[in-house]
């Protein structure tokens, strides 16, 4: 393709139109059904979103109740730092402490719920081939990344997770003070008996986790290195996202505390006409 000048409106228009049909790997794929790597059982009309989030980047999605979203660690060094909000009542958000203590479990995997600060279920983990996740350390921040890498700004080459989540939040009308502590998928930790945290890293390329939205949710994702990753380099590889239409859970959850949270969620959804 010959070089097109964008110094005038005609040239800028020609340049923009020349991009038609050119797929940028880290951009959403539209229509979603044109993307590859879908589960075989998902019909084209149920495919809602397809995107790859590059290392050091972020996304913000609003999902209907019952939507399943699959996150895949494509190359083995993604780390998805996730914040969740009730999309119809955004002052209700993920509560990591309650997620742990209500279910008596700090290590997320299939069947566990991501609970809100109102005792409701925002999402359920319905499949997990990684089991390398973290509820304890949160995401990276600007000062820490400046100390480790020399820069933590969103525009720099080593952006911090919180700085990217601030940008993601702004896309849906939320502010920095709205951001809760996050959970991290694909880079794990183990809590030792003395309280210290051991970084366990990744399960490897191709690992995935599926979340089902039990309420309409806003999902913010920053794909950046885990703050306790011991490597000196800023290592962050692509995160693939696929979302499709499904049904929310109406089944009893495991354990009385989790069952109560699901009952709260179903009652709330019915009252709201969701």
Computed over alpha carbons, the radius of gyration is 19 Å
Mean pLDDT: 92
Shape, principal axes of CA atoms: globular
- Main beta sheet strand tally, sense and closure: 6 strands, antiparallel
Q: Indicate the proportion of strand residues.
A: 25-35%
What structural category do the secondary elements indicate? alpha+beta
- Number of helical segments with 4 or more residues: 5
Report, as a whole number of angstroms, the end-to-end distance: 50 Å
Total discrete domains: 1
Can you put this structure into words, describing what you see?
The protein is α+β, with helices and mostly antiparallel strands and 274 residues long. The chain has one domain (48-247, 254-271). Helices cover 19% and strands 26% of the residues. Strands 1-13-3-11-6-5 form a six-stranded antiparallel sheet. Strands 2-12-4-8-7 form a five-stranded antiparallel sheet, covered by helices on one side. It has a two-stranded antiparallel sheet with strand order 9-10. The longest helix has 16 residues, at 256-271. The mean pLDDT is 92.
Helix and strand layout, with pairings?
Elements (H helix, E strand, L loop, with lengths): L8 H10 L28 E7 L3 E7 L4 E6 L6 E7 L9 H8 L9 E3 L5 E8 L4 E2 L7 H8 L11 H11 L11 E3 L2 E4 L5 E5 L6 E6 L3 E7 L15 E6 L11 H16 L3
Pick out its properties.
274 residues, alpha+beta, 6-stranded antiparallel sheet, 5-stranded antiparallel sheet, 5 helices
């Amino acid at each position: 393709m010959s070089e097109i000048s964008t110094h005038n409106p005609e040239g800028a228009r020609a340049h923009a139109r020349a991009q038609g049909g050119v797929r940028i790997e880290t951009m959403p794929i539209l229509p979603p059904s044109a993307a590859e790597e879908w589960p075989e059982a998902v019909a084209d009309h149920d495919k809602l979103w397809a995107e790859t989030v590059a290392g050091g980047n972020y996304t913000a999605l609003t999902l209907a109740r019952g939507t399943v979203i699959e996150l895949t660690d494509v190359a083995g060094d993604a780390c998805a730092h996730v914040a969740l909000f009730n999309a119809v009542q955004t002052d209700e958000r993920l509560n990591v402490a309650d997620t742990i203590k209500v279910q008596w479990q700090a290590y997320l995997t299939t069947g566990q719920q991501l609970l809100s600060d109102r005792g409701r279920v925002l999402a359920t983990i319905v499949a997990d081939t990684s089991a390398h996740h973290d509820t304890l350390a949160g995401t990276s921040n600007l000062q820490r990344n400046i100390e480790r890498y020399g820069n933590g700004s969103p525009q720099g080459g080593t952006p911090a997770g919180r700085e990217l989540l601030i940008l993601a939040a702004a896309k849906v009308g939320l502010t920095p003070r709205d951001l809760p502590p996050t959970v991290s998928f694909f880079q794990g930790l183990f809590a030792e008996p003395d309280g210290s945290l051991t970084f366990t890293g990744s399960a490897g390329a191709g690992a995935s986790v599926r979340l089902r939205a039990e309420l309409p949710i806003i999902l913010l994702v920053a794909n950046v290195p885990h703050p306790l990753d011991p490597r000196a380099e800023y290592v962050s590889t692509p995160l693939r996202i696929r979302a499709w239409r499904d049904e929310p859970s109406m089944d009893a959850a495991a354990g009385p505390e989790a069952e109560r949270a699901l009952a709260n969620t179903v009652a709330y959804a019915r009252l709201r006409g969701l």
